[in-house]
Every structure is written in structure tokens, then in C-alpha cells.
Amino acid sequence: MDCKQLLEAEAVEAVDEDAKINCILTEEIIPKWLTKLQSCKEDFPPYGRLVYSSITMFIQYLLPTITIAIAYYQIYGQLKVGYKWKTVLCFPYQFD
Fold it and tell me: Which residue of 1, 17, 48, 93 has the fewest C-beta atoms within 10 A of its own C-beta?
């Protein structure tokens, strides 16, 4: 049974709801939307695209990279202090 017959039979008898929705989608809604070309365009002011790209790059790439670098530097500092104390405790007469 094709969609036209299914939609006509709907008035007479009970029709499967999923089949009805599928027919409506394929016969009415999808062709309506596919015939029209729809697009979205972002209108930036002069140099707006450059500013937007720079800020986005800073937030998504540079900010996490800087944060990780600072964390690694702090870990390095803690390890250096710990190594220094370990060396002093193990070899106390070497540093007199």
C-alpha cells in the first residue's frame, strides 16, 4: 500500500501510526524542505573574523597549553626540592 492509499484509508480504518508518520515525512515534509536552498551566513564586522578566530584559538589551544606548562613547572619545582632534601638527609656531611 503506497502513501496516498494509506492516508486515504486512514479515514476509513485504523492505520499504523508509524506508517502514517513515515508517509507524511516522505510525501509532504521532506520534499518541501529539500527544494529550498537554506544556508546560514555569519556577517562579521571588519576584522571581526580575525578577532573571533584569535580568541577561539587562545581559549581552545593556548590557554590549556599554558595551564599544563605551569602545572609541569610546579611539579618540577616540587621534585627538585624533594630531591634536594633527600640528598641532604642521605649525605649530611657532604654539604658542610
Answer: 93
